[in-house]
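Appendix B, Record 12. Input sequence as logged:
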Amino acid sequence: MARETHWWWIRHAPVTEHARIYGQHDVDSDVTDTEVFRAVAAELPSSAVWLTSNLSRTIQTADAIIAAIDERHRPRQKPFAVPEFAEQHLGDWQGLDREEFYRMRKKAPFWFGPADERAPGGESFNDLIARVKPAIERITQEYAGRDIIAVTHGGTIKAMLSAALELSPDRALAFSVDNCSITRADHFRAEGSDYWRIGTVNHRPWARSAD
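Logged structural output:
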């Protein structure tokens, strides 16, 4: 029988400096919308392993979700940071006005540039996939059979989808991953082979609760 490991990927809450490109700049999240965090918390399993990237906006978001969980079911240990899950390093583009940046250059359909374009002094989306994939494999092996809640970034989650589904990086960039949305990916190993099943992408539980 296959042993399943369930990943619950959550993009961080909106940042407070959205007008500028932030990438790996350590900007803060706006964690004031408690209704959103309650709706997200209600979807998550108890007794899960919690992790974040090393950037403050993911740590702040994880703390806000945990605060919305009934005290009896909150994780006993604080989330641990995985630096490999940081957002794509956008190099010299970081700090630029977002609208001005897009006026200065041909805009890629879904991202700052094509997947193979490396930001000056930074990374390409391909580089991000190469950084994220081994960390996913390592953590999946370490916590096989568990639920893993990973509060990370839009680029990181798209990189995961590219690796799990063996999609070309440019195609993976077409996924929508909204702030605080849940993306579910299940890993299982059967007969010596590894498989991924995607349960949901960009699930926004607060939108359903508002109906």
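The chain has a mean pLDDT of 94.
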